[in-house]
Design a protein that fits this description.
12 helices, alpha/beta, 5-stranded mixed beta sheet, Alpha-Beta Plaits, Malonyl-Coenzyme A Acyl Carrier Protein, domain 2, single chain, ACP S-malonyltransferase, 9 strands
Length: 304
Amino acid sequence: MSGLAIACPGQGAQHPKMFELALQSERARDWLAGYSAATGVDVVALAAQGEDLFSNRNAQLLICGAEIATWTALQERLPPPELFIGYSVGELAAYGCAGAWTVKELGLLVPQRALLMDQVAPKNAGMLAIKGVGAAAIDDICKRYRLELAIINAEDHFVLGGVRDNIETASADITAAGHWCKVLDVAIPSHTSFMRTAVQPFRHLLKTTPAHALTAPVLAGINGLSEPERTIADTLSAQIAEPVRWQDCMDTTVERGVTVVLELGPGRALSRMFDELGVAVEARSAEDFRTLDGIVKWVETRLA
């Protein structure tokens, strides 16, 4: 066992320099050229412009592109990971890192996932993160404000989805009650029943784009388990309209004997959540480092 897990974050931390690490590698630059050609979007140029990085389509293209490119730059220099884990759209990127699809196949899957979600999402929708309250209180909040549970990050850390007006009202009341919450910069209520009509079309697309053999297991976001390849289409499509159980994914990662988690970035959200578990797992984001060499040295040192 190498003791290494690779974590792929979701939307929310896109920035103009998110491809800097990947661009240090010729292999990753070649992959990005193929990905941009397949999607019809120069993702490096899109990020560098610094505009419209948070629309659903652009965010999914950028997140998957940056994460798989960063792993492409690193994979031959690091020990084989025990598993891959992905948060929200990061789960699609995690399968990409594990070799499920070619760059051309990813160039079809990523924009089509975004398009299907855009087509079915209600207008003026969004998501709300809440910390410091338990599951029972979350149930009450969902009922009172007509919101739905979207992500379980911890016993007192949740993300809800719904109509923007309801989110704003809930946010004001929760803040007034002395609890932390944040309206997220997303316009799609992912992982809720609002998105259910996108599930079957995406499942069909995944079924007609069969996955190749994986280099390591990928945990399913809906249950924190590693699924056999024949169920990738089922679990990855279901994730669009079912809650992501990230806490279960982290628990499974620890149970598998992982001691080092490398988050591919952008951002550091997943690393922070692993730190908050209070277990003997060291987690850092690739964005903590200036160079690929620095990442490799840190991983090698921690695994030694």
